[in-house]
Amino acid sequence: GPRYDPVALQNKWLPRWEELKPFRADIEGDKRPRKYVLDMFSYPSGDLHMGHAEAFALGDVVARYWRQQGFNVLHPVGWDSFGLPAENAAIKRGVDPREWTYANIDQQKVSMKEYATSVDWDRELHTSDPEYYKWNQWLFLKLYEKGLAYRKESWVNWDPVDQTVLANEQVLADGTSDRSGAVVVKKKLTQWYFKITDYADRLLDDLNQLEGSWPSKVLAMQRNWIGRSVGADVDFEIEGRPEKVTVFTTRPDTLYGVTFMVVAPDSDLAAELVAGSADPAVRANFAEYLTQVQKSTEIERQDASREKTGVFLDRFAINPVNGERIPIWAADYVLADYGHGAVMAVPAHDQRDLDFARKFSLPVRVVLDTNAAVTGAIPVLPINPETGEAELPDDLPPLDPAHTGQALTGEGRMINSGPLDGLSKSNAIRRITEILQAAGNGRAAKNYRLRDWLISRQRFWGTPIPILYDEDGELIPVAEEQLPVLLPPTEGLDLQPRGQSPLGAAEDWVNVTLPDGRQGRRDADTMDTFVDSSWYFLRFMNPNDETQAFAPKEADKWAPVDQYVGGVEHAILHLLYARFITKVLFDLGFVSFTEPFSALLNQGMVLSGGSKMSKSKGGVNLGDEIALYGVDAIRLTMVFAGPPEDDINWEDVSPAGSAKFLARAWRLAQDVTSAPEVEWKTGDNGLRRVTHRFLAEAPGLVESFKFNVVVARLMELVNATRKVIDSGAGGGDAAVREATETVALALSLFAPYTAEEMWEVLGYPASVAQHGWRKADPTLLVESSVTAVVQVNGKVRERLEVSPTIDPAELEQLARTSAAVIRAIGDGEIVNLIVKAPRLVSIAVKG
Ligand code: ANZ
């Protein structure tokens, strides 16, 4: 007979689908309920790889499933096509980044189509098209109007290899660039920022809405990134300076334990304070220290184990609660852009301050007795009858951080703290905040780890920032009607990174006539590509709309995205930015929801030899695997390997096994001899039960992402069907057709080519993807028998196969007549007998 030939099936069905467009979302007229399923769009840096193959297989199961369940599904595709890799490749090869980018897109597109992702190709978008990036510029102007886009001169993370600024999020934990791998350095530049910090509270609090539908790991990472700290701002007078200096502290309770103040060496405050010192040696010392500090990364500076360094600024502050005069130092463990860039140092209770105090011989004063119990009164200690003094138990550590080197960070009772004495830590925090507030030199305050989003890039291949400057540097936003500000041709431009945007050298482009006729210049920087991806999900409803970024009415009908699928590497950056922009658009009245992605699935990675595959490290090539086993077998292997969020070690799975299984399934359809009109009821009852159990269980399993379990059950169904065919009943049995159709419907989620072919062989028109799932017949779900257990004095003595609807009296009768039960009762007297039909008979016997 014919042979299962996956490549032939691909060649047959791919063009048919192009024609039929079975995956088109109906944006307007459709009455069906809607679902929006979105895979994180891909960066066109080369052809699709195994990682894409996993993510797209998983997302596609979800999209195909909801379609099958009767939903009008929007499952679009786009390309995140601006960015450095295109520019770097273009520089290397001397071509326009456009050429490289669009050639890669074409290649990925062919592969994605072959991979049978059920996307609506009519909605494809590329962020590097002027039709798209025009709306990035529109978005920028909206943020600017709202005061959410601003320019600031500041120290920025500088990638010395790519010669560009990096967002904090792009600096890896070891202080290197996530782009080039170079060690990131600091540089002072005037840059554009988006004021995401205005949204810190909402970004944090709204994560609660996503609990249960986003991976808890991602929620935790977002919370940690936003990093809200609650405490107080305290104002310190400075000798010889009219203005006070404010510090942020999470521990205002320790205010009586402050013995010095530390400011960030790279803050304006440090420079100003040291300039006020009369001692030239102090100023020289500071200057030298600052140079040294600027060579270290933020990550190094936050490393608590690092040897403390610092210099005395020859200035003094006054503690507002006790009037003490404390020296002011500059040290790099204090960061310029956190809190107020200055701290009140409490060495007894803060490890960093203690390390610093020990290094520079500064005083340490304990203000919290961590040996005292927190609840109830200070414990009554045993009194030594000879000395008459309270005796500390031996196992209590002495309150001597200056000598032990261990800061006292635990709970306790306040001491040496005037009005706070005797209070617990939390009560002291409350009390001192009130005291400060009443005296006007402090107040409750919050701080965030989150920084504003730096969006300027000194590179060519991105969205031009729609801002002009006059000769005085005065800023003029480009009028909305003038958008898009198009990227110029690359001809004659040197794209080589030089620390300034290459656009600045495009004379014809950068020099403009201002609206009032004067001469001006364009902002030559381009936007971070995370701007592009922060709102792309809103563009898919009307990707070709020339009048607006997106249609608010359509956006509200479809968004938020019901299921977002993508890698955990986007746990912070992309997701945080998309959440922020969604909230901004909500505030501007463009959308009526505040979270972009209702549910998130992070697929695991595909590993080879235990390590992540990548272009540089090599690994398994997707194209080769597809050539060997076929698309369907690869897709099936991806979903069968385990829970979607787990990594897949490609050596541990069997695409050959998947192909074999698909051939088995396909052969069932070949062997069915009955007509589509055959009466199901006449079929083999046992097989019908297996089929209907599967029909009943599969949807719940898919919805809880147990795709691998669905495949396992499907294998059982295929085996049961084969058994009936081979048992002599043959392919004419109605139950065989019913089971095989069910196999095809289920396979359409995982192995679309095989499923489509089976569906045609079974006598139906394409496409199986448009056919609904079948409802299970409840009468076939009733179990035909259950096991009843008979216990005598708690011990199981008999198991009986009985009907699930057995009468309790009948069950008791069966139990009483069982030989094993009679033996167990022996001469005893039955004192109690409980029947719980159909599962249990429990007999209590005495004597
Ligand atoms: C006094 C104190 C006493 C502090 C104590 C802690 C413990 P989080 O939780 O990360 O918000 N701090 C404030 N601004 C800083 C800056 N710019 N750079 C480095 N450290 C800074 O940390 C807040 C605490 O970190 C603040 O509370 C302050 O030290 C320090 F027993 O103030 B604390």
Automatic annotation (TrEMBL):
<feature type="binding site">
    <location>
        <position position="615"/>
    </location>
    <ligand>
        <name>ATP</name>
    </ligand>
</feature>
<dbReference type="InterPro" id="IPR014729">
    <property type="entry name" value="Rossmann-like_a/b/a_fold"/>
</dbReference>
<dbReference type="GO" id="GO:0004823">
    <property type="term" value="F:leucine-tRNA ligase activity"/>
</dbReference>
<dbReference type="GO" id="GO:0005829">
    <property type="term" value="C:cytosol"/>
</dbReference>
<keyword id="KW-0547">Nucleotide-binding</keyword>
<feature type="short sequence motif" description="'KMSKS' region">
    <location>
        <begin position="612"/>
        <end position="616"/>
    </location>
</feature>
<dbReference type="Pfam" id="PF08264">
    <property type="entry name" value="Anticodon_1"/>
</dbReference>
<comment type="similarity">
    <text>Belongs to the class-I aminoacyl-tRNA synthetase family.</text>
</comment>
<dbReference type="Pfam" id="PF00133">
    <property type="entry name" value="tRNA-synt_1"/>
</dbReference>
<protein>
    <recommendedName>
        <fullName>Leucine--tRNA ligase</fullName>
        <ecNumber>6.1.1.4</ecNumber>
    </recommendedName>
</protein>
<keyword id="KW-0648">Protein biosynthesis</keyword>
<keyword id="KW-0067">ATP-binding</keyword>
<dbReference type="GO" id="GO:0005524">
    <property type="term" value="F:ATP binding"/>
</dbReference>
<dbReference type="Pfam" id="PF13603">
    <property type="entry name" value="tRNA-synt_1_2"/>
</dbReference>
<dbReference type="InterPro" id="IPR002300">
    <property type="entry name" value="aa-tRNA-synth_Ia"/>
</dbReference>
<feature type="short sequence motif" description="'HIGH' region">
    <location>
        <begin position="42"/>
        <end position="52"/>
    </location>
</feature>
<dbReference type="InterPro" id="IPR001412">
    <property type="entry name" value="aa-tRNA-synth_I_CS"/>
</dbReference>
<dbReference type="InterPro" id="IPR002302">
    <property type="entry name" value="Leu-tRNA-ligase"/>
</dbReference>
<dbReference type="InterPro" id="IPR025709">
    <property type="entry name" value="Leu_tRNA-synth_edit"/>
</dbReference>
<feature type="domain" description="Aminoacyl-tRNA synthetase class Ia">
    <location>
        <begin position="450"/>
        <end position="650"/>
    </location>
</feature>
<feature type="domain" description="Leucyl-tRNA synthetase editing">
    <location>
        <begin position="223"/>
        <end position="436"/>
    </location>
</feature>
<dbReference type="GO" id="GO:0006429">
    <property type="term" value="P:leucyl-tRNA aminoacylation"/>
</dbReference>
<keyword id="KW-0963">Cytoplasm</keyword>
<keyword id="KW-0436">Ligase</keyword>
<feature type="domain" description="Aminoacyl-tRNA synthetase class Ia">
    <location>
        <begin position="13"/>
        <end position="211"/>
    </location>
</feature>
<keyword id="KW-0030">Aminoacyl-tRNA synthetase</keyword>
<feature type="domain" description="Methionyl/Valyl/Leucyl/Isoleucyl-tRNA synthetase anticodon-binding">
    <location>
        <begin position="687"/>
        <end position="807"/>
    </location>
</feature>
<dbReference type="InterPro" id="IPR009080">
    <property type="entry name" value="tRNAsynth_Ia_anticodon-bd"/>
</dbReference>
<dbReference type="InterPro" id="IPR009008">
    <property type="entry name" value="Val/Leu/Ile-tRNA-synth_edit"/>
</dbReference>
<dbReference type="InterPro" id="IPR013155">
    <property type="entry name" value="M/V/L/I-tRNA-synth_anticd-bd"/>
</dbReference>
<dbReference type="GO" id="GO:0002161">
    <property type="term" value="F:aminoacyl-tRNA deacylase activity"/>
</dbReference>
